[in-house]
Queue: 4 jobs
Job 1
Amino acid sequence: MNTLLSSRLGAVKPSPSIAAKARVDALRAAGRRIVDFTIGEPDFPTPAHIVEGAVAALAQGHTRYTGSAGTPALRQAIAAKLARENGLAFRSEEIMVGVGAKNLIFNALAATLNEGDEVVIPAPFWVSYPDMVLLNGGTPVIAAADAASGFKLTADALQKAITPRTRWLILNTPNNPSGAVYTRGELEAICAVLRLHPQVWLMTDEIYEHFVYGDARHLSPLNVAPDLAVRTLLVNGVSKAYAMTGWRVGYAAGPAALVQALALLASQTTTCASAMSQAAAAVALNGPQDCVTEARTLFAQRRDRITELLEPIPGLRCAVPDGAFYVFPSVAGLLGRKTPEGTVLTNDLDVTLFLLDNAGVAAVDGGAYGMPGHLRLSFATGIDQIEAGCAAIREAVGLLA
Ligand SMILES: Cc1ncc(COP(=O)(O)O)c(C=O)c1O
């Protein structure tokens, strides 16, 4: 059959979290009150000093194309940040600025994958990784990292997933959706496996690095295995740390040859990230960091509140996440139960639809993240919403037979 879409696009589904958000917007437009736990971004505005920096940059004429890899000022600010906060030494030529981390992950795959190359992705995963691999002709190889291992990829599971065709492992710590934060020992074990397979590159997505709670500490795999720097691409950005999701600036750091390939790709696609957004990102990285500390403190309080309210609900099991701003409770205890309308809840998608209809609460099903039997709830929302949403979930679950 003749179709407008390429076969690659045909293999791809819309981002489930963006789809869930659209469903919430539609219900709200129809007059329903919905507590929205689907949000994947901080719920507060970009700090004023960053906005002011961007306005000043506009006034100073930062309104033109920049180099494809980013402005020298921002690349230097990123190198300084990686040295200061992560203890990692990168030269400007080893740093690439992109239109969000998402754009860089996609371009890194586009720049390196040949048809049928495999990419190991631990599940649960950020929804976009597998589809980005498919869009670039690769094959996602999903390696389970379930609750038994604290939602973390074990060395053994990684070893089993690697084949001669493996090109990348994508590791995300702190993790969206599980909130898992890899420890030094866990990263060492993974890096030891990678050392045995020189054909495998490591993509380390550290976009939630600043949101770690309690005793958890963020570590980059490069902190424990600097020898892997020759085949590692570190991906990060300003979206989450500085509440700058709409500015669309991310960055990647890795071998200069890969950065050049990324710049080549950008030069033929986006040209560059927006000049004023790059100026704002430099202000964010070079400026005072209290806004990041304040955001972390706020998220820590919300994490504590949402877990203490969800865990006692019969049928839910909610581990306390060490990082990011999501909880990922198991809903296995609700499966097989019957709604007041007589429908049996057979999977996590049924549970999300039940909660949307009966509790006015929006969450995303774990299946979207490669781990059915769970829900993802974002706590990047006010304590009042968290309390109202959890009370509504408790009440709705109480109606199940
Ligand atoms: C794990 C992970 N990586 C990357 C991104 C993309 O971030 P950016 O806004 O920089 O494109 C997200 C956004 O939700 C994410 O959750």
Job 2
Amino acid sequence: MIPEHDARQAIALAGQGANVSEIARRLGHDRKTIRIYLNGHRAPGQPRPHADSYAPFAAYILQRTADDRHLRGAGLHLEITALGYAGSYSALTRELRGHGITAACRTCKPWQPVTPAPGQRPALLPVRVAPITGETTSSYLARTAAASHLPLSAITDVLPPWFAVRAAACDDIAKPGLLQPGDTSCLAALTGIAETALRHALPALAGHRDDGRPPVRATIACRRCAARHGQHDPVPVHLPAHQRTCQRHPAWLGRAIQINLAAVPGITRAGKQASRLARQHGITRLVLAETTARQETASGPGTRQRAAELALANPGLDPEHPDTAEAAAYPDTIKMAVALLSTPGALPAGPE
Ligand SMILES: [Zn+2]
Ligand SMILES: [Zn+2]
């Protein structure tokens, strides 16, 4: 908050045609603060909304930290600031502590520095292994080695050192800058899989914005998709943070369980609509709308009906399981998310 007199002066200067940078310089406040007054997000003299700035994001934060345990405080702060959170980083960490949320993974080891080796193209392996969408580096390299009856080290020894580091890492999409040009083509030469296909399937190779972690959820690949690849053990993947369904089968990809959705096609349709909404509004904004909506939709009559239908079609499925409940509420959740996304003021406004 800036003194009321300064805020009024900022608005007057803007009225005379001064831009944000000029006003910020002249009054000695930062541009972000000046914008808050010029956009009308806060009236002159009105205190900063400290107490309740966390509340609209509480459900979002719970979901994101549960879905991606490598999303640390700083990354989370970047995400919610872009969605309109007004608090500082230290205010957020205070809130996280207060709510008992520990964002950081406890099993991660510090990164070893990687020295790029002189490039040498490895020989093609006898067995071709296609990557599964979203697969982690360690999973893909381990499957590739096993298919050719080789130890993992036989593969990492002939690849650039980046791969050995990633294969050993708990979180293979951190610090994306370490990937050297040409590294992916070495993997392509070894596996016989096209570079574009590798980059498309393996998030660690995709290359990310430098300013943050991509919004992903760590989960297990659709079991039936993995089985098509001859893979019967769970395959760890990073999926876009909003993606809850496999459209091909169709299946609900919950936190703990996967549910066959054939009996309740409305849930699969909602998944398709969610993909469209994510393209239109951005992944994190959609997740914010969903987590806000779910507080209303979790106990509706449609939700109870669908939970019963799912349990009937999936023997042994607990209709009260949190994943079942979330799947059953999903068509209503997405319907309400659409309303929230299209109603001005229904969700916190972004910073601009
Ligand atoms: Zn970790
Ligand atoms: Zn599938």
Job 3
Amino acid sequence: MGLGKDFRLPLDARPVRYAAHLAPDLEAGTFEGRLELEMRLTKPRRELTLHALELDVEKARVRAGGKSVRAGRIEPDAESETVTLHFDEEVPAGQAVVDLAWRAKFSPGLRGLYRAGPVAVTQFEAADARRVFPCFDEPAFKARWSLQLLQIPRGAAAISNGRVAKDDPGEDGRRTIAFTETPPLSSYLIALVVGDLSASDPAMVRGVPVRTWCVPPKRHLTGFAQECASAVLPLLEDYFGQPYAYGKLDQVAVPDFEAGAMENAGAITFREVALLLDPKTAPLNVQKRVAEVITHELAHQWFGNLVTMAWWDDLWLNEAFATWMAYKIVDVWRPRWRVWMDFEVGKGAALHLDSLKSSHAIRAEVKNAQEAGESFDAITYEKGGAILRMIESYLGEERFRDGIRSYMRKHREANATADDLWGALAESSEQPILELANAWIRQVGYPLLWVGERDGKLVLRQRRFFADPEAREEGPPTRWPVPIVFRFRDEKGLHEHRELLRSETAEVSLPAKQPAWVLANAGARGFYRVSYEPRLLRALIQGLPHLSGEERLNLVSDRWALVRAGDAQVDGFLRLLEGVSRQETDHSVLDEVVSRLSFIEYRGVSDADRPALHSWIRRLFAPAGSELGWDPRDGEDDDRRLRRAAVLRALALVARDPQSVETAQERFRGLVAPQAQPVDPNLLDVVVAAAARTADPARFAELRRRAEEELDPAAKRRFLHALAMVEHPELVPEAVQLSLSDAVRMQDFPSYMGTLLGNRAARELAWSLIQERWADVRKKADSPMLLRRLVEALGALTERRHLQEVEAFLAAHPIEGARQAIAQTRERLRMDVALRERLVPEVGAFLRA
Ligand SMILES: [Zn+2]
């Protein structure tokens, strides 16, 4: 009888200190381990169960109560991912030390201890420390870790959570490296990295040495990461009112990495593209993204590492906080970047995911580590972050921060739950926020707020919003306490007014007679969508220039959601885009408009009507295109450069304007010429994509060479994905086949495949490859997160026939650990296929009118 997948360790045995040696053989891909595990037992026991997966535990003894007892039987259990040590005699309560020895292999995917190019690296969250150490692999078991690496070759770098305390060359040139003991940490935060890496010079930040590591040829790309970490670390210390706890900070760029980054205490690992960049050629969006990831991981050093969730059901406590905090701190560091606008884009994705029937609550039951893994999605990150922002906005910034500080003080080096946080916030703010917070954290979805007008008062109504026009709530309707901030304009100017909507409907009297317009989500802080009665909507559109960028972006996003849900007509929406694109100067809002147009061009128009849509879009953007041109003026600011990027994306990529496509190709030729002519970095995505679509075999070879040779990770990624955008009939099969070759690393496989599936010329062939070579495809996405991304990429398919094929395929090929991704992708695809059938005639009629 096994313990079952949902097995959790009992609480009467707790780890205090792990003293472990690991001897990796990088050539053979194997390792040996030894561990002295100091524990406290609250009652006597004959056996001890630890997590262990694919570890060959050879020897185990326990020392307790003055004697040493052998484990005569060592029983691994694959389903519960444990090993049970059956001791020959009873072990008394009190302090006990278990001695263990084991052997194992490196993991084949991107979890446990694995090889990434010239580096061996660990990735443990959520529950893969058990692939390297027998341990208490649940977040509630925090302990000190004292680690050593043995048999390390000369010249190899070695990084872990602690500082290098000893580096002993040994007699045979094989080094022993000991790291300083850590403060109490959960197992998922432990890291080891060994291999051919070099580091930037350390920066001293309030006494903490900060370094950025990468493979040696990329060392010149570490400057930005150093600058950013050095700037934000003090800002975080000041916000939390607690010093950084881990003594030193290493940021490590790993050549093949599953997630974006991992917040291991003091030894943060990243995808190369999320850490390294060349400031001369990096577009602003790449710089912002790197800064955001670095800050997110640093925020975790407090939220997650210092105070840790007790169990995975509160994973959002880690991720929502780090998400929100990253924007907050980067906004302080670089206010002119206006990163909250980017937050809006992420929030839009979360609003869409959360409008599916198959969405989930931010805080939901998690039975095991596999289910925990499924929670790393836009609900946990972006929705969670948006809810915190909404609550902060409701309580006020200072009271919110005071609550966080007291929560940090109270639970440092320990574990906490959501209710501990709400308790601290309620105390600091003297507001009853438990009910408000729990409604948003524990209920699935969010409200659509309908706003009308009667007898000079506003009439409000809420219901759960579904993206699917057919979807209805089963059971009693969900209600949210909705903190609403109205903004309105009357003859005296702009005003705000706050209301907490508690019931299904309410009437609100604004302190104004005859406002010119009323907005029901000021600053776009609320996590809900708004539908206005026609007269109010018309007034609001008249007032567009008075709204903030966030508010205009949010209005476009809400209107589009209502079109999808069948609550608004597409022609009204297209007319709104027409108006916005003509007068809009904010590049983020323009980008949102271009993204919606791109969706409609891809999915909402027949082949016959597409040329008419192209000319319509061209007419919208041509004036801005000729005003902005392709080249920045001397001293031009970022806003204008980014506006140009949005406009040229619309012209060259969405409208396929022949002249813009021709210029893009010219710029590409200049870019790759021996005497390279630089292109404004913000235009690189447009230039390379347009060149890829029109590529002939020679250009394809050039793109391939660049994808292989580029050192700058963002440039490399851009060229790699460009290969998946080709349209030339002779090149498409090659681009599709390339996905399974070594040219595409495991970490890039789902996004490369997604690009192929989103390419009208490559879609069928890519989909056939997935179906026909499923065994190879699975091996290429050998990790649960990558498999989920691959499943999600199938959402790019368009036709009813595809939907049927995907349904049949997923039914015949079950994927463990992707339950939610599969349900969400099926629902999304069903909806988008139906949406396409609805949009095609409506968009066609609009274009002919
Ligand atoms: Zn995170």
Job 4
Amino acid sequence: MDRAAAPADLASLELPPERMRALGEQVLARVVAHLASLERQPACGDVAAQDLCRSLRAGPPEHGTELEALLTPLFEQWVGRSFNTAGPGYLAFIPGGGLYASALADFIADATNRYTGVWQAAPALVQLEANVLDWLREWMGFPPGTRGLLTTGGSMANFAAVVTAREARLGERLREGVLYASTQSHLCISKAAKLAGILPDRVRRVPVDGAFRMRVDALRDAIAADRAAGLRPFLVVSTAGTTNTGAVDPLDAIAELCAEQGLWHHCDGAYGAFFHMVPELRPLLAGLSRADSLALDPHKGLFLPYGTGAVLVRDGAALRAAHAGTAEYLPPPADEEFYDPAQYGPELSRDFRGLRVWLPLQLHGTAAFRAAIAEKRQLAVEAAATLAQRPGLVLLAPPQLSLFAFHLHRPGADLERDNADTRRLLAAVNARQRVMITGCTVDGRFLARVCVLSFRTRRERIDLAVRDISEEAASILGSV
Ligand SMILES: Cc1ncc(COP(=O)(O)O)c(C=O)c1O
């Protein structure tokens, strides 16, 4: 057969180097233009997109399309139809921002596609991940015997910790075990308990004090009541920075009680743990270093793009015991000296997620991260202090870290009226599209909350937030 007449080699998915470069440059041009315009983009984005979503439904393409034709709607029509989570005005939920250096790391990790599930497949690359875990350990004040795991987020980090505590403290006697967390703990804790086989009737929601922190007296009483009922209290989950109001539980007192009662103390530091990197701020998290395990979220407090959480376990052997395993088709696990990810977590194949933490820290240096974290707290403290002066604005939860929550109140108004006014305020502030804030309901009261944690949120943007909130509050409270 005449080779020249043969059809193109359809089975080849490889690209020649010039084409790779050209495609990369097209993507880079789009990404850089997008990031450079974040400041000017609307803070909330237009997410009323049912019709758009319906129009996007499509089957798999049989034939290829030019990249530019794909990038155009992606960047011009679809990316913008979302919360602007990367922008400087994102003060909603718990921000992070998404460091560019991590995007570069992901590109390298995906392009080189090395296997970091087991140590022996990429020892040097796994060592970089081990270094990252060791840095986290040091910043959190955990001892050298600690082992950890990079996960996809805080929920998975908390899950790994709950499983480890369950294995270490309950063995096969799951049904008797009781877990304690405050009424303000994150949804992922009860989810983790359920997935770990601790059913809802064995999860106690401990009440909080006026600053939304777990009440240790109530915790003590709950433990005693469960023991009296023949159950086995085994785990207390504290929170270092709650999602609703940013409250830090009394970590030292909880550590003390857990030591006295022989309970595992896990701390959910998904939002707040990275404030411990800054020596001057450590007193805000006193006792964090005493926890048996700690969840932390680099995609929040280290400003990474979504997709990276971490867990540290003081007794590294316990984390390993909960997850270790071998198989005939795998190389033998590395010995203790070398970190072997699959022995410390549920995944085998996984992305090389250590690089997206390692590269930005190497590129910017740790000092830059400490400075950025300290700045976010300072901005929150100052903004809260200014807003607290505004008539009719009640700062119910001043910043314990970098999150504060407040509501409106006009003289004589009842709870329902306060809630309606505060919801109106939230909608009016967001409609200005310079910042995005979200709310939460605690004991029936609706609170607007501001969380300063994006690396792109600097003083100029916080000043705009304070101005928008002040003006809209005055306008609402001045109206009949
Ligand atoms: C206190 C706390 N714990 C856990 C989580 C869950 O983390 P992720 O969303 O990374 O799974 C969050 C998320 O906001 C959080 O604020």
